[in-house]
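2.7 Reproducibility. Because tokenized structures are sensitive to small changes in the input, we list the exact sequence used for Transcriptional regulator, including any N-terminal residues retained from the expression construct. No trimming or masking was applied before prediction.
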Amino acid sequence: MNPLFHEIFQTTRDITNKLNSCLKEHDLYSSQWTILYTINKNGPMSLTDIWKYLKVEAPTVTRTVARLEQLDWIVRTEGEDRREKIVSFSEEGKKKFPDVLASVLQFEEGLIETFNDEEQQQLLELICKLKGRANHWKS
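Resulting structure tokens (single pass, no recycling of outputs):
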């Protein structure tokens, strides 16, 4: 295995674990956060749109959304088609989201505080370049 990929995988796991620790005070996990962030960014979305956007399997998104609904973060409503479910913030979720966002932003700042603006831009460009290659790969 190319050591680069080993480091990417290990770093991703490490960041996810540390993010989960950060989110623990809000009784959330990173998988739940990604859905909340996506809804905040894009507005109400169908379950299908969420799993396509996040590139996660549908059953995983459905389970995570169900848990967020139990925790009163989100609500599901019927879309144009009765089978379609639209996910949006609950009133309670709208109130709590800014505190979670502040915690995540503080976590992110701590991760990149040793990078200057140029290094951050370089890293972003390299990640995007790698992502572009991965999107062209036929599995």
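The CA atoms of residues 66 and 74 lie 9 Å apart.
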